[in-house]
Backbone:
């Protein structure tokens, strides 16, 4: 890398001021933020981000999917663009680092390069992808850019149809616009995303930087155990077909089985609904969302069949009927090998320790990887806390991550992929 | 009993026509009815009942708690009134016999006695108690009549404050009116309620009539298991504090324990809520409603302490915090001994087999027993099904029950308590 590039560093004070400012928008008062996609707090964060882009002398852009970005022309008009970014929305009662760190670091990288007056082979763009966390569609902004959304996806979105329509209205968007946000892959030079690890591995091994190699595969099912509704006071215990027993037995057994027999895999039942839901009626149905993740495809498939078999077994044991409704499945994805090397070199050149990691979470980078070389930089998460107000990354690590993002950006922009 | 009384019988055809008519109001199309208190269907059923009262030449009465009744003057103006009745509301997606059978039988008894032109030592009243099933307050109408409701009860009703206010508005009622429905005990000669058993005992022993001796005691708690919210993909299984595991383990173990070790007792968990409730967040809290019932007070107390200890043990096992919020407790109640004898004699004089039973469910009779001698007549429930569209009682048994109600009414009204 040229000398004039390798000396560039993030403006620590400005970056930190930005981070503190965004952490106040939708603050839950306990260190976390509550900024679900297109909520009042999220819309306020978007307005704030737009203002920061304009204050920095960058060109503000808004696409039909609600993605906000700041554009920095460092090259010819028709040169490809290197995208940097993440997302400003959060899960309900989430943490202040997840997503926001990557968006603000991207903005800061563009400001530093803008101030340095560098001319590069690519243009640069710092982007805030809309609805990453799945309140409406999930990874909506990045999927729209990648052209991975269809009218069908919007007709049956994860958060329900009315939440989507309401959200779009609140943000001044519409469905046709979402599909129009698709970009021509030839216009993109690549994508880099800085993000907290959301797991404990970097902290436990006292390492600075994680280079993401693979995104864990995921599979979701709606499992419905059905028994019989009965009066809870008059129906003898041994005559009941209580759906809650099948669901409870499955939840317990699935957790034990994955903990003991599926290394690096996870299972989660984040919601259970008993129906009809009255204190004096034996539950007829117990409906739950089963989520499972594995870093390799073979393991994901084996985990899926094992857990479905387990659910069937538990239903049979309690004389219940089981319906397993498939929701979605995403096989594990490998990040671009060349970009992984660029991130490793960037970290090494800054004297930072690094390790290869798989990501247990979904990210916009996984989606954008479909249309251009993409990579992810992880920084440590204290205690591995994530999707929680306890989420915390020491500021030193945030700075390390932002400087790796800056250095890797310059390497990628100047095509030093190896 | 005088001969002119003992020959009186229910008008089978009219009674059945009424029962078929009311079963259509709020019919769920599968043999059940959906008539939660003050829903459109319930209001329609109330209007229909009022019309039947007026068609029969009885005096229609409405009190401030929304109780509808038909009054038959068979005695002096200041003579006490013998109340007969039950309720026309249902649980969501409930059965067509629970409550409605008792109200229509009471109406039919009054019509038969009216037609016979009998003069009795008491007046008679067929009553439909409002909100028995607990959508708003639970046993609201009978508690109002018994003077057991306070402003405090209405300030924190079982179904929530807004549901109560909305329900009252829909029915043209108000809170002050509810409290005004209290009756002077000296005006009441007694209360009789015909009801389906809601359990399998009469059917299993091929018996016609159950004479209720005791109402099972009940105790309700809100149990809240609290762990920690974490990202479901990035938090290793063994590092989680998953609240769903404590709740699941408790639900399973409580059911097994009560089935094996607490004869004639029941436990039910009719609703569970996981929070924050997202598929990709490890549940921080699992909140459930625990309901337990036992026919003797000692057993109820032992069951309560055993299950709370079990919940604590399961919380500790999964490293969770447990909060047990007491909701309410009602000790088992004995029905009036004299009225029990009247019902037995009535059944015997009609050649019907009978047995003493405790009731596993709450009933208006339990509440009215606080202010006057009260008794309950049970008829068989096929398969013990209850609070379900599968609820079914053969018509022969309904007729038997209504004739026992008529016969017992005449015995009670003429003070043949033994």
Residues:
């Amino acid at each position: 890398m040229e000398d004039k590039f390798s000396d560039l560093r993030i403006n620590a004070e400005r970056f930190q001021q930005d981070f503190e400012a965004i952490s106040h928008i939708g603050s839950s008062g306990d260190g976390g933020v509550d900024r679900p996609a297109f909520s009042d707090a999220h819309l306020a964060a978007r307005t704030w981000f737009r203002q920061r882009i304009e204050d920095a002398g960058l060109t503000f852009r808004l696409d039909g999917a609600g993605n906000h970005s700041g554009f920095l022309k460092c090259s010819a008009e028709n040169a490809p663009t290197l995208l940097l970014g993440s997302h400003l929305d959060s899960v309900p009662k989430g943490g202040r680092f997840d997503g926001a760190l990557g968006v603000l670091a991207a903005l800061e990288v563009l400001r530093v390069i803008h101030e340095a007056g560098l001319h590069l082979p690519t243009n640069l763009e710092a982007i805030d992808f809309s609805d990453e966390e799945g309140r409406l569609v999930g990874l909506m902004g990045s999927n729209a850019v990648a052209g991975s959304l269809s009218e069908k996806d919007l007709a049956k979105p994860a958060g329900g149809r009315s939440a989507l329509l309401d959200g779009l209205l609140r943000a001044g968007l519409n469905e046709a616009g979402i599909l129009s946000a698709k970009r021509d892959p030839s216009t993109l030079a690549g994508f880099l995303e800085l993000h907290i690890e959301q797991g404990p591995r970097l902290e436990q091994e006292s390492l600075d930087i994680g280079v993401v190699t693979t995104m864990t595969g995921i599979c979701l099912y709606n499992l419905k155990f059905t028994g019989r509704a009965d009066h809870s006071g008059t129906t003898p215990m041994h005559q009941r077909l209580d759906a809650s027993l099948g669901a409870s037995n499955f939840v317990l057994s699935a957790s034990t089985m994955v903990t003991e027999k599926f290394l690096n895999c996870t299972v989660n039942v984040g919601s259970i609904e008993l129906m009809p839901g009255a204190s004096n009626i034996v539950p007829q149905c117990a409906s739950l969302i089963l989520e499972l993740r594995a870093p390799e495809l073979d393991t994901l498939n084996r985990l899926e069949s094992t857990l479905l078999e387990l659910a069937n077994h538990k239903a049979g044991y309690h004389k219940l009927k089981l319906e397993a409704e498939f929701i979605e499945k995403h096989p594990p994805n490998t990040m671009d090998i060349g970009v992984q090397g660029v991130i490793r070199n960037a970290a090494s050149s800054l004297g930072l320790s690094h390790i290869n990691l798989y990501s247990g979470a979904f990210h916009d980078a996984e989606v954008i990887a479909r249309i251009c070389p993409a990579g992810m930089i992880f920084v440590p998460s204290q205690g591995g806390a994530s999707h929680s107000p306890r989420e915390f990354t020491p500021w030193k690590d945030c700075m390390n991550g932002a400087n790796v993002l800056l250095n890797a950006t310059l390497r990628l922009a100047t095509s030093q992929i190896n």
Summary: Chain A touches chain B through 66 residues (CB under 8 Å). Chain A has a mean pLDDT of 95.
